[in-house]
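Title: [Solved] M20 family metallopeptidase 3D structure

Original question kept below for reference.
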Amino acid sequence: MTKEALELLRDLVRQDTTSGDRAAQAAAQELAVSYATATAGVRVLRRSASGRPWVLLGTGSGSGALFVCHIDTVPAGSPDRWEHAPFSAAADEKFLHGRGTVDMKGGLVAALAALRNAAAAGADAQVLITSDEEIGCRGAAEAAGSLELTPRIVVVPEATQNRVSLGHRGATWLRLAAEGKAAHGSTPHLGRNAIQLLAERVLGALGSFPLSAEDYLGEETVNVGTFEGGTATNIVPASAVLTLDVRTVDGGAPAIAWASSLDPAISAEVDLDLPAVRTPHLPDALAEQTTAPAAAYFTDASALAGSVAGAPIVIWGPGDPREMHAANEKLELESWREALRNYRELVLSAAR
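Solution (posted by the thread starter after getting help):
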């Protein structure tokens, strides 16, 4: 099965499934479905009828392990930055190279192989394949609105070097827009500079931004992601927009309240508000595994946590997290083979 799984992985890496391209993501999902359902006992349980594509595959009633995987990737960027072409799926003895190898097509294929193992053994397991995770878990959110899942354990196969992470922070993305008044650049006193307004009221106030901490998840952070404004050097800018990426442990409400109270001339919109995920202890099915710190990134688990009947959620997958979103992304093949073994054992033990 390992050889066939590797062939599927290379085929998936050759597909450009950048977030936002629904057709490309749907086509790649069909490759995954074809591979999984080639084993008797694996079937498509539910799938999206419209909107962002997602598909739920399973072997039974859904009381075993559930793997939550996304098919999309971040953009590859300029090919000039890559030693191997980003969609070539070039391989050598140690690594498979290409966009999405680590984040997270390697984990997805390992989960699909485990699903086939479960079917062959008469065990119960499911794999949910989502889309547009990289732009805010949009596909998982749509799936959550249609599914009532009852797994024993939920695994998100993101890269953790095969150590078990028990959660991650949430994310609140804010869009702050300032309205000023245009004027000639030589008479700024006749206008109101929207860029300066945002700089003074927002950037100048970041020192008072409400940030909390949690023992395992760590400290909350805030990052200014973008800042746009102005049309010409000699015009007082009438509008400006900046975005904030807040990683939360205690929900997004404090950040939203802070942004909404800055200035009457500054509007605050919430682009994304995902909760933190925290499993209090290592699930019994993974008692022999090594634990890892909280994942630095967010995952589809934030969107699905309310739809899995309180099942423990872990982030546990092959690959080095430092490869995620990087040029020259590469997956260590031995790490991937270890995940194949881990997931096979999990689906069998979770069904006992």
